[in-house]
Amino acid sequence: MNNRRNFLKKTAALTVGASALRLPLTAKPKSMNQEINGINIVGPKEGFTPEIGTLVSMMNWMRNTMLMPVYGMSQKDLDYLHDPESNSVGAMLMHLVATERFYQINTFEGGVHFEPGRKEDQMYEAASNLGDAGRKTFKGNDLDYYLDKLSACREFSLKELAKYDDSWLEIIDTQFWGSPTNNYCKWFHVAEHESNHNGQIKYLKSRLHTN
């Protein structure tokens, strides 16, 4: 009995000690709050419902990662073609803009494709297809040109995503990609797609001074 009583006393003391080490959220210093809201925290974000905020945090993290290798690249670097069939870094950056714009049209605006009669959509079409169209269309631009396009497109995405609640992510398109696909999958693809091209961008950058 005495052994059990001593065990309970020790357990209670340890519990109190552990509790004393845990500060309530309101007591966290500003620096820690800033860290919690930082780029490396995946989870709900202010201004969005929980699941949409988590999705946004993933999109933002991948965007930050994808842009790291392009900072400091010159116009010549952005236009570099490793071979006659490759895509330039500049064209791939616009490809990412076009992809995100497609999903804006598809999920926010009820559209299914770019409008060929619109000049802006012709640019998106060239960026989406890459190849000859991308090589011809996207050259001679400095980095700020591409960063501005990426930023404006993302700003619109965030503005629109803030209008919806988590149930919107569950809405299913029965024929997208040939099988049922919900909005969550579509917008997760926007982040995953940037991850895919991030590897290509890094490879092209590594080839700049080898030829």
Descriptive report:
A two-stranded antiparallel ribbon has the order 1-2. Helix 3 (50-67) runs parallel beside helix 10 (183-207), helix 5 (89-108) crosses helix 6 and helix 6 (119-129) crosses helix 7. It is built from 10 helices and 2 strands. It is globular. The termini are far apart. Strand 1 and strand 2 (181-182) form a beta hairpin. The chain has helices spanning 2-21, 30-36, 50-67, 75-79, 89-108, 119-129, 131-137, 143-161, 166-169, 183-207, and strands at residues 172-173, 181-182. The chain is mainly α.
Strand order of the largest sheet: 1-2
Strand percentage lies at under 5%
Query: What would you call the shape?
Result: globular
Number of strands: 2
Salient structural properties:
mainly alpha, two-stranded antiparallel sheet
Set out the fold topology:
Layout: H1 2-21, H2 30-36, H3 50-67, H4 75-79, H5 89-108, H6 119-129, H7 131-137, H8 143-161, H9 166-169, E1 172-173, E2 181-182, H10 183-207
Antiparallel strand pairs: 1-2
Helix pairs in contact: 3-10, 5-6, 5-8, 5-10, 6-7
